[in-house]
Design brief:
single chain; 424 residues; mainly alpha; Rossmann fold; Tyrosyl-Transfer RNA Synthetase; 3 domains; 3-stranded parallel β-sheet; 17 helices; 61% helix; 6% strand
């Protein structure tokens, strides 16, 4: 076994679906083999999104049971629930004091919510301007055109850098229009004695201000999310942290925070390295968009055979006839199939798509059979675990004990470095 320590976690924010299986659970299980691995259920991180205790307990159990059913070896990997190791909250508090606020302002988790708020404000303001023809009808028409372009772009399936840049350009165009519009309004008001117009301008400006609070819905748990994440990473002396390309920042922040601490208090933490996981590509949902709980297009990993078949048969396809050639790389059925079949079967289905002669109904049946065969044994194990949650909790409890041994040694080392061990 390698002496490298690997750490990874998953947030219990929903019932695990096939996208989670391919993008997170399966790679985590594979990486845990042959290494000292710490795998945790990040229930503390989930608290900034889920405030229902019943929901959090349900999702935590489902995620834990999924890992076990799909083959995580809990006798070798340290598998535990984050909240069962109180040292992580203690270390997070200490790390707060060496973490610049500017670092938190740059966190993707924070900026993503701000972007969502900015988009909501954009739509609201565009509607206000679109409806307002008091000053100049041209502005109303411009705003309607801009809003239509924005909503059309947002409705397109895949997220990518080019699309993101186009959205930013539209937002900049909107800001320019708004600026000119408000200036004209004020000039008009200055020349007018129309109290109704003055009142309307004031009301408009109040609405605009109300709609541009970018921190609406952001709690301190989300804002300081990277510090707790850094505590997770540093607490177990991690060497390697597997992440996707969009999560590399988490490890970079942990390195920055550890470096700041070491510079002030002496060498205490080793600096972890990110391991960028192989891109599994887009895992499409029933409608072709990225599989996500927020879109309602997900296929739960452990649906019953009947439910699995029902959902797969609902996958949206184009209108090509069976005899027509089809592009497998743009097809939801094929993109899902390649994660459940061997290389030879995947190559065969690709050929059948490209040559033509295969209808979508038959392709869906092929996908169902492959997915169901792959999931049959894990499903039986999962169902048994869900009927006996005490077995899951016992395994998590055992993992927490092992995790706390390492965590306690780390916090003792940190306290000594900070001279907080007053009585020793």
């Amino acid at each position: 076994m390698s002496k490298e320590i690997i750490l990874t976690g998953i947030k219990p924010t929903g019932t695990p679906h096939l996208g989670n299986l391919v993008g997170a659970i399966k790679p985590i299980i594979e990486m845990s083999q042959g290494r000292q691995a710490f795998v945790f259920i990040a229930d503390l991180h989930a608290l900034n999104m889920i405030h229902s205790p019943a929901e959090l307990q349900k999702y935590t159990l489902e995620v834990a049971a999924s890992f076990i059913a799909l083959g995580l070896d809990t006798s070798k990997a340290v598998f535990f629930r984050q909240s069962d190791v109180p040292e992580v909250a203690y270390l997070s508090t200490l790390l707060m004091n060496v973490t610049p606020k500017g670092l938190m302002n740059r966190a993707h988790s924070y900026k993503e919510i701000q972007d969502i708020n900015r988009e909501k404000a954009f739509i609201k303001q565009m509607r206000l301007l679109e409806e307002d023809t008091v000053l100049n009808k041209t502005f109303s028409e411009k705003c309607k055109n801009l809003k239509d372009r924005y909503e059309r772009l947002k409705s397109e399936g895949n997220e990518n850098t080019e699309k993101s840049n186009q959205l930013k350009v539209l937002l900049e165009e909107f800001q320019n229009i708004t600026s000119v519009f408000e200036k004209r309004y004020k000039e008009h008001v200055g020349k007018s004695k129309d109290e109704r117009l003055i009142e309307k301008v004031f009301e408009f400006e109040q609405k605009v201000q109300k709609n541009v609070d970018l921190d609406i819905g952001i709690n301190m748990g989300l804002y300081t999310y990277p510090v707790l994440m850094s505590a997770d990473i540093l607490l177990y002396n991690s060497d390697i942290v597997p992440v996707g390309k969009d999560q590399k920042q988490h490890v970079e922040f942990a390195r920055d925070i550890a470096g700041s601490f070491n510079a002030i208090y002496g060498e205490t933490f080793k600096l972890p390295q990110p391991f960028i996981q192989e891109d599994t590509g887009l895992i499409p949902g029933l409608d072709g968009r990225k599989m996500s709980k927020s879109y309602g297009n997900q296929i739960p990993i452990f649906d019953s055979e009947a439910e699995l078949k029902k959902k797969i048969m609902r996958i949206i396809t184009d209108s090509k006839l069976p005899e027509e050639p089809k592009n497998p790389d743009n097809d939801t059925i094929f993109l899902l199939y390649k994660h459940f079949a061997d290389a030879a079967a995947v190559a065969d289905l690709r050929t059948r798509f490209e040559k033509g002669g295969l209808g979508y109904g038959d392709a869906k049946k092929i996908l169902y059979e492959a997915a169901n065969d792959y999931l049959a044994a894990p499903r039986a194990r999962y169902e048994a675990l869900m009927k006996n949650p005490k077995e899951v909790y016992a395994l998590l409890g055992d993992g927490a004990k092992r995790a706390r041994e390492v965590a306690a040694a780390t916090t003792d080392r940190v306290k000594r470095a900070m001279k907080l061990d007053y009585f020793n």
